[in-house]
Hints:
The chain is of the alpha+beta class.
Amino acid sequence: MRRSRLGLLLILLGVLAACGRAPLHHQEAFVFGTRVEVLIAGLPEAQARPAAAAVLREFDRLHRTYHAWKPSELSALNEALAAGRRQAVTPEMATLIADAQRLALASEQLFDPGIGRLVSLWGFQSDDLPAALPDAGALAAWRAARPGIADVQLDDHSAASRKRELALDFGGYLKGVALDRAAAILAAQGVHNALLNIGGNVLALGSKNGQPWRVGIQHPRQPGPLATIELDDGEAIGTSGDYQRYFEVDGRRYCHLLDPRSGQPVEHTQALSVLISPRAAAGALSDVASKPLFIAGRDWPRLARRLQVEHVLRIDAEGRVQVSAAMHRRLVYVGGQPKALEIVP
């Protein structure tokens, strides 16, 4: 078995080197099971430090409140759903569930935070990765029930479901929500130029002392970036990759990105990145959209149009690169344009 690589999906390029030229405050922590960073440009330390600290506190609060398998408000809800009980939820929880239901519907249920039981069966709800495949009978039973977030019956104060197999896991959604929360916190504290990074999910605010924030999109099979891209104010970028969290059995890779239709890990894609233009909840969409497009495989262009995502970069299982025309115009390929490159109109 091979352990997951928890390195960043996007590499921040040259940001710390700028410290000597202009103010650039940097704080980081380990939250959501990954490295998170807050970089603030152009402000004195006395203003930047408490603003960044407030962001990291909110990250930690979200992580603890919505942890899928350690004691939390979300795990308490999952216990109630498994027991067939209606459970009181906070207004924040109700909003997250309702937004996730809307996004799941838009993605044709390929993004579905209601597959927490499937994630657990595959062993990905753990700090340690499994060494063996899940029980075939348990997988078949889950497929027969096919629970999803659409099965949550929600009102203003409580949630319930007729399907006891339903369990929520916000792991493919919460980092993007956190990016949007961070942007609001920084704006309220007068911070307008910052880069927020949660394990490769990145949101850019303003600029880096007058220059665009530049990040690199990690190559899924080689060290370093496949390409770099400059981010405009309010743009967000997210990546899903089979190299983030996976295990191997008999030389075969099983990644944490599961197809809800089959109950199996996706094998046809190595990585997929999306760039989201400035809009409300751009951070959340950047986190969400990469998952269904990753799962969709070669059908991603149709689904991207449905999700109103114009900038997409996909690397398939053989290492071939597919890129939307809009994304291609934004990228600077490291080492030159890939030989196996398809530009999708």
